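Dear Dr. K.,

Following up on our conversation at the group meeting, I've run the structure prediction for Tetratricopeptide repeat protein from Lysinibacillus composti. I'm pasting the input sequence below exactly as I used it, so you can double-check it against your construct before we proceed with anything downstream. Let me know if the numbering doesn't match what you have in your notebook.
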Amino acid sequence: MGIVAFIVLGVIVANVMASKQDKQFSMEDTLYKQATELHSQGNNTEAATYIKELLKLQSESEAVNYLGAVIAASNNEMQQAATLLQKTLDINPYKVEDPMFMLQFGETLYHIERYDDAKIVLTRCQEAGWAPESFPTYQERVAELLSLIENM
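The predicted structure tokens came back this morning:
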């Protein structure tokens, strides 16, 4: 009888904990969707409020850090954007193979006057020869930024 009670108690505890996790996930999902929607509407000030709260809850999420970086850059908070892009890269080192991520990171580093770091990132973009269909002037933009750095 004691084993049955122990198993029943375990099932009840597991259900309660799962319910709390479901509520937490639902809340975090809502925050992410709200931040994304506000950003897509150009309301980046309000989006920043949501993403800052979400960053407290999911500081190790690649997607949350990246969205936070995009929103921060849209609000001209370039230092914060650079920090979040670096965190995104720390979480997923394979982002060095993502042409748009690397260009965004290079541009952000340029804007906060970390020229040596920007040059490293942008040189990687240039040497990779990336030409995303969604950004046909990608290499021209990379060359422009590298030229600006060289002429500093």
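Two things stood out to me. DSSP finds seven helices and no strands in the chain. The chain has two domains: 1-87, 92-152.

Best regards,
J.T.
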